Amino acid sequence: MNKIRILDCTLRDGGYINHWNFGRDTIQEIISNLTVSGIEIIECGFLRDVPYQEDVAVFSCVSQITPFIASKKEKALYVAMIALGDINPEKILPYDGTSIGGIRLTFHKHEWAEAKSTAAILKEKGYQVFVQPVGTTSYSDEELLGLIKEVNGLQPYAFYLVDTLGILYRHDLLRLFYLIDHNLDPQIKIGFHSHNNLQLSFANAQELLRLHSKRELILDASVYGMGRGVGNLATELLAEYINVNIEPRYHITPLLTIADQYLSSIFSEQRWGYALPYFLSAVEQCHPNYAAHLLKKETLTIESIFKILSLLPADKKDIYHPEMVDKLYLDLQNCEIDDETSIEYLKKSISGKTVLLLAPGITLDTHKGEIQTFVEREDPLIISTNFISREFESDILFVSNRKRLNAMQKEIALQPYIMATSNLLEELPSSVKFMNYSSYLGEGQAADNAGAMLIRILNKAGVVKIALAGFDGFDVDSTNNYYINSFKSVIERKTAEQKNEDITRQLRLALNGIPYQLVTPTRYGLQ
């Protein structure tokens, strides 16, 4: 069974999680432990034409990799990846046996002519070249056969089936594998790189291991499944499966050492693994960042997200275009109306009053006493923002968020005064006071933050003074984020920090020129 090889891509594909900033010693230890474990092919990181930093697994010259593999194992192949265009292949030093022996070249469908030329240069320099078309599943049979024919002429070390979107079920996998296997030169190895969007990476790897093929097979994996978003096939799982079901070959303890000593701390800061955005992207066969971007807005139902993803043009699905998905999002939300009557009604309601805005932060519970004291002293008009408070009776319920509206359906009919943005026209009765959605959007990220939109509405209605309670901001500990349990969800540190920064900017701009006070503490940068 020597025809099976594991390629570990922890330092390269896993590096998307921490921007490849593992630290010099950790890079060294990961490579060392992978070597001791018996992994046949070890990917050390990216080759890019950028300034070199020794703590980062991104290299501008193959000689920079040499110190990390000084004690390399004779039977192991050490490789790095080039994403086409990231570095001129002429800058790559010829292979001399002291550094990596292989280079993985990844490219998009329309880049093949340049990729073919680059691969030929790298091969001429003495490297084992891996040809890896991004999103192999997006190729028609005719396109794939045409590519294979040219790859045969190139004679690389390996040709890859790349399931970029993680959408391959068993029958799809086998059909593509046999198509490639039947037409690819027998001397060229077949590699399989999968993403775990549908939790099928391990199952698909096992399926390929069961095949009776003369072809040499390379299976990509990363320790602890480390990888962007949903992650990858876990190296330790694959190695143990081969040990138990095929032949004893790998030492598992060094792999577990990598996970325990070097990756678990990264995982605690920025998680990877199964998540809805990656399931949605697999179902709609689009780049996972589209679904992740929409889910992070926390304003849409799953049905609405599916609708937006289904509207993505076919030729834009594979590569992420944030501006395009934002336009589709705003198109879905936007419904132009004349809201002057609603504004006049609001003017009368708030005339001469301080307005207390309630957001669903946990401080509504932890600082309940301060809020009650404020209400008794100021007798404000109270507006709840996208939730119904258990403790404080609101004079007005403001709704701008489809997802939150769904959560309030059973209680919303009991609210005496509902004010909503016009993106919810079809979901609410005509008795609701609707405000024109697009008129109160901010600019940039978090443009549709409910609190900031409500403040802009109040400003137009001539508010005298605003008080804020429950505008807590985001904490990585989800239990500290919301007053209502059903709103709580896991959030990564960087996401929390970015949300706080974006919403702070929106709130500051909306509050500019309006007297306001904070009744409860906040992580937003408000004074």
Automatic annotation (TrEMBL):
Q: Does the keyword Manganese apply?
A: yes
Question: Which is an annotated GO molecular function term of this record?
Answer: 2-isopropylmalate synthase activity
Q: What is this protein called?
A: 4-hydroxy-2-ketovalerate aldolase
Stored InterPro entries: 2-IPM_HCS-like, Aldolase_TIM, PYR_CT
Domain of life where this protein originates: Bacteria
A Pfam family this protein belongs to? HMGL-like
Per UniProt, residues of the Pyruvate carboxyltransferase domain are: 3-244
> Coiled-coil segments, which residues?
none
Biological process annotations from GO: L-leucine biosynthetic process
Kindly state which keywords UniProt assigns to this record, in alphabetical order: Manganese
